[in-house]
Structure formats: structure tokens, C-alpha cells
Design a protein that fits this description.
single chain, mainly beta, 2 domains, five-stranded antiparallel sheet, 1 helix
């Protein structure tokens, strides 16, 4: 079953080893191009308790634009995240964006902004209902990678939430002539680890970029045997 803002969109069945596509109506999914708060448009996928588990992906598309992310079950959510994206190049259309989705009633989060790799102001946001969405849209030519979003322990102890991050239009590298959206559900910091494997594109002309965020001060990161860097909390 798919719910949007607590209202059932449709029931559907999934066969083993088969893919079932559910097309979400544009007017129910689109949040607009500006910061919005307490918009009850969270999309929820629920499997009947008597049925086996499923894997779920989300895909966004428009004309020649396309991006997808693996979705995490609520058991895989946490209470602390760092936003990840790219510095927008186009001052008219490109913006850094992240979305916070409540899975419980009255979830209060603290947003410690980091703009262009430097700490900035702090925001406090309360989402009142299950499925409420807070969408943050950054200013032109500003990168909010490393912005820390965590549950306010004085108001939402032990609560978790979902967070998505990226850009509505990113040019990677910055010299690229065309762009695509970045769209990724984030992993909470309690699921981070210390060793990762990266598979690069084949060929010297494809380009390969890694963006790494530190959870703690004085974190030394080694990339193969070629590069090492020390990062402070939230820096990338």
C-alpha cells in the first residue's frame, strides 16, 4: 500500500523477483522550489504484516533529467544526519536541497548549517505529524554539504526521522555543460563506518569524485595509498 500524507493512494501486489512500478501523481509529490515546512506529503510504502519484506527504490524524472535512490526501511533510520550535495553553478535554477520526513508525531530537529564548508546559523524545526516534510532550499551558489541535522534531545528524545539530500540541478564537474539532479536518502551517522570500497568509472575521460564528511574532529582519511587528509566535524 502507498500512502501520501496519511491518505491511501493505492494498494498493489509484488511478485517474487519481479518489479512493480507505482507512478506518484506529480501534484501530490511536488513540494515546489522553495523552503516549506510541515507539508504533509511524505510518501509511505507499507507491506502487510503477513507478507514478506520488499526492497524499494525511488526514481525522479523530468524530460532528460533522471535520478534514483535506494529507500531505507524505518528500522534503518536514525536521529543524526549530515547533508551531502554539490555547489550549484547556475544562479537561476540550481539549488542545494534537503528534505526531512517525520515518522512520529511532534519531531523537533536542530539544523546546524554549514555553508561553503564553514559553520553558519542554527535553525530549529518541529514537524507535528507522521509524514510531515520540511524542505530546505539553499541560496544560489552556496554549498550546504556538512550541515548537521539531529533530533533535539530536549523535545524528541530517542525519535528518528528520514532525510534526503542533494541538488535540484548539479554540474559535476563544475565545468560541465549540462547537469542532472542529485537525490539520495542519507544514512544516519550511527550506520557510518571506517572502511569503504569505491568502484571508479572505466577510462581516463569519465571523471571520478569522492566527497567525504567527518563526524568527529581530527578525522584522518586515507584514500588508497595516494592521498590522506585530516577533517574536522562536518567538514568535507
Amino acid at each position: 500500500m502507498v500512502n501520501i500524507g496519511g491518505v491511501k493512494l493505492q494498494d498493489f501486489q509484488v511478485q517474487a523477483a519481479q518489479i512493480t512500478e507505482i507512478d506518484i501523481p506529480y501534484n501530490k509529490a511536488y513540494l515546489g522550489d522553495r523552503t516549506t515546512q510541515n507539508t504533509t506529503q511524505g510518501i509511505q510504502v507499507i507491506v502487510d504484516d503477513a507478507d514478506p519484506a520488499v526492497v524499494v527504490y525511488a526514481h525522479i524524472y523530468a524530460d532528460a533529467r533522471s535520478e534514483a535512490t535506494l529507500l531505507l526501511p524505518i528500522e534503518g533510520l536514525g536521529s543524526s544526519y549530515y547533508a551531502m550535495g554539490w555547489r550549484p553553478k547556475d544562479p537561476n535554477d540550481a539549488r542545494f536541497v534537503f528534505n526531512i520526513v517525520a515518522i512520529t508525531e511532534t519531531t523537533t530537529v536542530i539544523i546546524q548549517q554549514r555553508i561553503n564548508n564553514a559553520l553558519s546559523s542554527t535553525l530549529t524545526v518541529t514537524l507535528n505529524h507522521v509524514g510531515d516534510v520540511y524542505q530546505f532550499v539553499g541560496n544560489a551558489d552556496e554549498n550546504y554539504t556538512g550541515t548537521h541535522v539531529k533530533v533535539d534531545p530536549t523535545n524528541s528524545d530517542c525519535k528518528t526521522f528520514a532525510m534526503f539530500s542533494g541538488d535540484n540541478l548539479a554540474y559535476i564537474p563544475s565545468t560541465a555543460l549540462t547537469g542532472d539532479p542529485l537525490f539520495q536518502q542519507l544514512y544516519a551517522t550511527n550506520y557510518w563506518w571506517k572502511k569503504y570500497v569505491y568502484v571508479p568509472f572505466k577510462g581516463p575521460d569519465q571523471g571520478n569524485y569522492l566527497r567525504i564528511i567527518a563526524k568527529e574532529d581530527n578525522t584522518k582519511v586515507e584514500i588508497g595509498t595516494i592521498t590522506s587528509v585530516t577533517l574536522q566535524q562536518g567538514a568535507f
